[in-house]
Amino acid sequence: MGSIDTSTPESIPTVDISSWLSPSATEKDRQNVVDAMSAACHTYGFFHLAGHGVSEKDRDIALNCSKRFFELTPEERMEVWIGKCKGRSLRGYEPPGIQTHQNGLKPDTKEVSHSLTKSTAPILYMFCKVKSNRLTLLEKKKALIIGAEIPEDDPEAGTFSTGPNLWPKQIPDSELRTPIMEYQAKMVELVKILLKILARGLPKEWNQPADCLDPLAENRPSIPMRLLHYAPQSVEDAQQFGGNVFYNFPNKTPSPNVLRLRGIK
User: Fold this and answer.
1) Would you call 16 helix, strand, or coil by DSSP?
2) pLDDT tens digits, one per residue of 189-217
């Protein structure tokens, strides 16, 4: 009599949503997408996403924007540092050595440019290491975090993660602001699609309508959208390496695959 293998595969599955997006897809095709994504989420909480319609050219443009920002001098980056943001909007450039993610560890050395609002489409890479059953970490990265544009005079401007972006005057809008905001819009639309697929995969006994997750991408959803660059490190410190564990606002996190393989995580 055979046995059932209940072990979890080591590789993260790939979910292809092209059938969901195709006008000629049958209801069975669409349900297959729902089932595949539901299984991946229940087993891993992560999946590689294929057939999403976001081209590699689009992703390269976003990554080039990140490179362009960090080509600025430290002094130029500090012109848009987080201390100049409105209220608690958490916008602007964050220099290294500010954040500590675990007691007993040294501050991280990442550089982050915050342009943060409340949305659902971040580009986010996070890595971690475990040594002797103890998590030790350092975010050896620079990051440009972009969010939706909230005007200075908006009633919510200055509240948590909500406010006007801080853009460096040294970079023309055509080389940073415009392409990044266009990419952000595409990612938000992708998240809306994922929410519809995920909603259909919820347990039947919950009795939720097919549009129950739609509000998560409406009414100014949060977009901590990070373009990351890991700078070379001359010295490795046992208390500072790798990157922070994966923390995120509760929602979907599409991320270009870090190994530049096909698909989005």
Assistant:
1) strand
2) 999 999 999 999 999 999 999 999 998 88
Which of 72-76, 82-86, 223-227 reaches the highest mean pLDDT? 72-76
* pLDDT tens-digit map of 18-73: 999 999 999 999 999 999 999 999 888 889 999 999 999 998 998 888 889 989 99
Q: Give 240's DSSP letter.
A: B
Find, among 140, 145, 137, 143, the residue nearest to 231 by Cα: 140
Distance CA 81, CA 91 (A): 8
CA angle at 153 for the pair 148 and 155, rounded to the nearest 5°: 80
Tokens of 87: 């209220």
Burial of 218 (C-beta count, 10 Å sphere; 0-12/13-18/19+):
exposed
| Dist. CA 107–CA 101, nearest whole Å | 8
CA-CA distance, 18 to 60, in Å (whole number)?
21
Residue 82 tokens read as 């987080």
